[in-house]
Amino acid sequence: MAMKLIKRGLAALGLASLAIAPTAAAEARTPRGPALWQVSDKDTTIYLFGTIHLLPRESRWRTPKLDQAMAKSQSLILETLIDTANPQQFAGTIGALGFSSGLPPLASRVEASKRPQLEAAIAKTKISRETFDRMETWFAAFTLLSVQFQSFGVEGEQGAEAVLRKAFAESRKPVGQLETNLEQLSFFDRLPESDQRQLLAGAIENPESSRAQFQGMLNAWLSGDVDTIGKTFNRDLQSSPELKAALLTRRNWNWSQWIERRMAQPGTVMVAVGAGHLAGEESVQRYLQSRGYKVKRLQ
After folding, report:
1. How many CB atoms lie within 10 A of CB 34?
2. For the segment 218-249, what is each residue's pLDDT rounded down to a tens digit?
3. How far apart are CA 94 and CA 106, in angstroms?
4. Does residue 7 or residue 277 have the better pLDDT?
5. Could you list the residue range(s) of the whole structural domain that residue 115 is in?
6. Cβ of 13: how many Cβ atoms within 10 Å?
């Protein structure tokens, strides 16, 4: 599960502040476009758009329907926002959560058979062993992944959130967030150590084996195949209830509550979150429907 969740799941689950995700060498053509929904009443419309956080250069996923929804929206809400004008703030959050004193050496946090892979992965980072030994296990996993994926052609600037944020900023429309950087990173920091070690084990496995898996996820996203995305997450997360609760269900419920509160105010808003949150039996839409809201799929 660890390999699949990290290399396929996190790209569509969100956690954009980590700024890492795999991609595929080639991009599939999309006949329909990524899924888009609408929740509305007499004076409020909220568009729900599922995203992939990092994508290959020249990815083509915008459609006329999505562009129309963007034009109608008065503001954009993303999972979280990194203040690029003040990077010290995000660095401070990473420092507070990602490092601790008195931790066991990182090598002791993986099986003995995996230690050569860990050594090779650390060597590629140009970061000292001492620094890694002070990292929380979850943060060490993402640090190793971020270096691996640099060779995959993935770019944060090409991710759906970055493109949407830029478009709204250019139109002088406000952009907000559902979670602070601290809240988002805390989901990982609060995971049981056993789950964090699953993430680390997945981070040091051969990244090439993830290409076909992620290509399938990317194809599903591009074609709006929400059923495949939902089934994938249910399968990948069922072996770890803590991970599922921390990364998926609790956040979906919280976001549905935010949307319900926002429905009490007039206006039009676009909410763009990882596609995994808008798929499956415990999606944001399902929570809204359980509260009596009608959710209409537009694309």
Report:
1. 24
2. 889 999 999 998 888 777 777 777 778 888 89
3. 18
4. 277
5. 2-297
6. 24
Residues 117, 95, 101: CA angle, nearest 5 degrees: 70
| Surface-to-core class of residue 270, CB atoms within 10 Å of its CB (0-12 exposed, 13-18 middle, 19+ buried) | buried
The CA distances from residue 141 to 5, 18, 20, 130, in Å, are: 12, 11, 11, 15
Tell me which of 85 and 52 has the higher pLDDT.
52
Angle at 208 between CA 123 and CA 245, to 5 degrees: 90
Three-class SS state of 102:
coil
Q: How far apart are CA 140 and CA 206, in angstroms?
A: 16
For residue range 132-154, what is the model confidence (pLDDT) as tens digits? 999 999 999 989 887 776 666 66
Q: Quick one: pLDDT at residue 149?
A: 67
- 14 Rama class: left (phi>0) / alpha (psi -120 to 50) / beta: left
Domain count, the chain: 1
Residue that the structure tokens 């909220």 belong to? 46
Q: Rounded to 5 degrees, what are φ and ψ at 22?
A: -80, 165
3-state helix, strand, coil in the chain (%, to 5): 55, 10, 30
This prediction has a pTM of 0.86
pLDDT-derived band at 14 (thresholds 50, 70, 90) equals low
| CA dist., res. 33 & res. 106, Å (int) | 42
